[in-house]
């Protein structure tokens, strides 16, 4: 079974980024462990894909068909923290990523990071932007409009 646990602190919760960019997920382990696993939950295929295992010496073992070029794990020696670096991002990399340690035949999971890769980021709403509706929006009060014409 899979169990989520507070022994693994995973940050951030959400990542929204663009195609071809790169990103990083951090996981801190507060328990004795032999290494850290990274999984991705695939919504469309409804299963966990094993990405990479990193032992306490920092040696990585990759899952089948997982590109070492795309996924890199860095381990900070002083703290038990591991970061997963994902590069050349594609929309197909979207999903929920979990760090995980194995403990007495159970897999303990971090809280998960939802990654969404899009071709173009939605623009932040600007105060000055006119709404893109078909009707013209009379935003200016008559007083201001009059003083503009003058």
Any idea what the radius of gyration is?
A: 22 Å
Order of helices and strands: EEEEEEEEEEEEH
Sheet having the most strands: 8 strands, mixed
Q: In whole angstroms, how far apart are the ends? A: 73 Å
- Which ranges are low-confidence, i.e. pLDDT below 50, for 5 or more consecutive residues? none
State the shape.
elongated
What is the percentage of strand-forming residues? over 45%
- The level of helicity is under 10%
Tell me the name of the CATH class of one domain. Mainly Beta
CATH architecture assignment name of one domain: Sandwich
What would CATH call the homologous superfamily of one domain? Immunoglobulins
Number of helices: 1
- For this structure, the quaternary state is single chain
How confident overall, as mean pLDDT? 84
Q: What class, by secondary structure content? A: mainly beta
CATH topology of one domain: Immunoglobulin-like
Work out the number of β strands: 12
């Amino acid at each position: 079974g899979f169990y989520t646990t507070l022994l693994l602190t995973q940050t951030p919760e959400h990542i929204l980024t663009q195609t071809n960019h790169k990103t990083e997920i951090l996981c801190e382990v507060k328990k004795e462990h032999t290494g850290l696993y990274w999984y991705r939950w695939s919504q469309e295929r409804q299963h966990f894909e094993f990405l990479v295992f990193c032992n306490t010496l920092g040696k990585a073992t990759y899952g089948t068909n997982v590109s070492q070029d795309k996924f890199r794990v860095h381990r900070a020696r002083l703290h038990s923290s591991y970061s997963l670096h994902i590069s050349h991002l594609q929309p197909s990399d979207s999903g929920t990523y979990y760090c995980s340690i194995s403990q007495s035949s159970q897999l303990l999971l971090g809280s998960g990071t939802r990654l969404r890769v899009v071709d173009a980021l939605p623009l932040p709403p600007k105060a000055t932007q006119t709404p893109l509706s078909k009707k013209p929006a009379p935003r200016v009060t008559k007083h201001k409009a009059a003083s503009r014409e003058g």
